[in-house]
Specification:
- It is built from 13 helices and ten strands.
- The chain is α/β, with parallel strands linked by helices.
- It has one domain: 3-Layer(aba) Sandwich (Rossmann fold).
- The strands form two sheets. Strands 6-7-8-3-9-10 form a six-stranded mixed sheet, sandwiched between helices. Strands 2-1-4-5 form a four-stranded antiparallel sheet, with helices on one face.
- The longest helix is centred in the C-terminal third of the chain and has 17 residues.
- The structure holds adenosine-5'-triphosphate (ATP) and magnesium ion.
């Protein structure tokens, strides 16, 4: 899937505009009370997803507080991507979705499409697993990062856009932004391409970042660098994050809490350290047993899932 899939197709308003409109309507103290009433930035309640007769996500509930990272872990096909795409309403029309996805007091599942478009890539961003397919191979990366910004900021002067792009490239530690802004995706390494996608995801200062297997395509050293970057960014931006991976060891490095998904059902949800210390569900135990550690006996195959 390309990023075009969740870029707004129509001009959008700034978050600030929405905020001022809301202020005019309710007054600031009411807005404050609304935010106090919903301590969770994201609260998914009873989410079910089906394709035809096949239910792939069953009554899933989870929440993420502002600034918190929730890890979502489970084997291939357990419904991780479907859940994340449901949040952004990017599943195909053939998907039957029920339940509630509450984001900062709004139910995303019942929002009209134009309002949803304002959220995508702005207050909620996503980074995809495969950097090469998510980037346009024939467009310089500077223009691609700029598009992520201008999609939500109409009529900004070129100089402002360029400085935003350079700042975004700096923030993800891409080397020599001034020189490399005109380069194409194939001129970057896999890790650098993932940094470009992170820059695009963060340029509009989202409140929630969904990262679907953001390091799976990378080798272990680069994976560690990207995880380190995400941890840093999360603190500097006070960003809430839904971090998806099939690898419990990776998730445990960034997540405050972990939800374990098996066949579309959450079988366990606990603070990361507790999950490791005292896993309750047999499936969690088998995931833990199959996660390689420094002490893993590599002469035997990993335990099956
Ligand atoms: N568009 C679709 N039409 C029909 N079935 C789908 C569609 N998208 C996903 N599915 C099915 O939904 C189930 C969950 O898929 P999903 O992509 O969410 O898994 P996942 O946990 O992200 O797996 P992976 O770790 O391999 O990325 C799978 O059985 C998959 O075949
Ligand atoms: Mg997936």
């Amino acid at each position: 899937m390309t990023l075009d899939a969740f870029r707004p197709r129509q001009p959008t308003f700034l978050t600030a505009v929405q905020y001022y409109r809301a202020t005019a309507h309710y007054g600031t103290s009411e807005i404050y009370r609304i935010s106090l009433r919903s301590p969770h930035m994201l609260a998914i309640e009873d989410l079910s997803i089906a394709f035809g007769d096949r239910k792939i996500v069953h009554n899933l509930s989870l929440s993420i507080a502002p600034g918190e990272t929730l890890g979502l872990v489970g084997e291939s096909g357990s419904g991780k991507s479907a859940t994340s795409l449901a949040i952004l309403r990017l599943l195909p029309e053939t998907a039957k979705i029920t339940g509630k996805i509450n984001f900062s007091g709004e139910d995303l599942l019942s929002l009209p499409e134009p309002a949803m478009r304002r959220h995508r890539g702005q207050s909620i961003s996503m980074i995809f697993q495969e950097p090469m397919t998510a980037l346009n191979p024939v467009m310089p990366i500077g223009r691609q990062i700029a598009e992520a910004y201008t999609a939500h900021h109409l009529g900004e002067p070129r100089t402002t856009i360029k400085s935003k792009v350079l700042a975004a490239m700096h923030s993800v530690k891409l080397p020599e932004p001034e020189r490399r802004i005109h380069d194409y995706p194939h001129q970057f390494s896999g890790g650098q391409r993932q940094r470009i996608l992170i820059a695009m995801a963060l340029i509009n200062r989202p409140r929630l970042l969904i990262a679907d297997e953001p390091t799976t395509a990378l080798d272990v050293t680069v994976q560690a660098q990207i995880l380190h970057l995400l941890k840093e960014i999360r603190l500097t931006h006070n960003l809430a994050m839904l971090f998806i991976s099939h690898d419990l060891a990776v998730v445990s490095q960034v997540a405050d809490r972990v939800a374990v998904l098996q066949h579309g059902r959450i079988v366990e949800l606990a603070p990361t350290s507790e999950l490791f210390r005292n896993p309750q569900h047999p499936y969690t135990r088998s995931l833990l047993a199959s996660a390689p550690t420094m002490h893993t006996d590599r002469t035997h195959p990993l335990a099956g899932l």
